[in-house]
Amino acid sequence: MDEAQILKIAQTLDDARLKATPLPQFSSFIKDFSRADAYHAQEEGIKIRTSRGEKIIGLKMGLTSEGKRKQMNLDSPLYGVLTDIMEVPHAGTFNLKGSIHPKIEPEIAFYINKDLKGKITRDDVLAATEYIAPALEILDSRYEGFKYFSMEDVIADNSSSSHFIIGPKCTNFKSLNLLNLKMQMKINGLVLAEGISSDISGDPVVSVIQLAELLSFRDQFIPANTIVLAGAATLAISLEPNMLVSLEVDNLEKMSLSVEE
Ligand code: 0L1
Ligand code: MG
Question: Of 39, 42, 59, 63, which is best to mutate to test ligand 1, by the most ligand atoms within 8 angstroms of its C-beta?
Fold first, then answer.
């Protein structure tokens, strides 16, 4: 695919996001849309956003749970980029205006304070982590129907990222078994999604290792001072007005978000 087509995809997705108007999937009419083209389009989309003044502050891993991959009929983890305006404060309010079909999912975030490049180990990730935190990711696909798209469509659409919320920080995470943290997301007090931290790629730390590896295929890395959303432990739930979403993760402080119209 040539540069002009890639820029057009990035621009079209950016317009769809700003106008909250969904699009048909590009892969339904472009036959040679490769994974490399898709990450290139994602990168161009982020350049459009940073040219307007947004700052890159993080990265997200997506499709990290087996259930989620089956739900979306997609085959492997992917990544996206987080900017400052995507962050909603913990215990704050998310306004649904401007979203197309938003969903929310429970995650664990890592704050990485040293560069992580290429093939890294679990110990490398832990040594580079300043804190972990419970996190909520709000997804919003810019495609019609929010399902059955190809990996390339999703990657170009910045892996369906919309907003994210980082809960209270935990700096003494080294004493925790990060494979065995129960995660419960409640909506208006009812548990609607429940999993365990190992539902995130077998181990949320492995998800960070996979992110460094995916980035290395594009000669990139996880830079110091980056928030990493390691991925969801459960399926995502559609957001509706007047929801109070809370997330409880074993040994971490509870977090919440109010949703309004
Ligand atoms: O963060 C995620 O797991 C989302 C990845 C993209 C698939 C989707 O839109 O649900
Ligand atoms: Mg996610």
Answer: 63
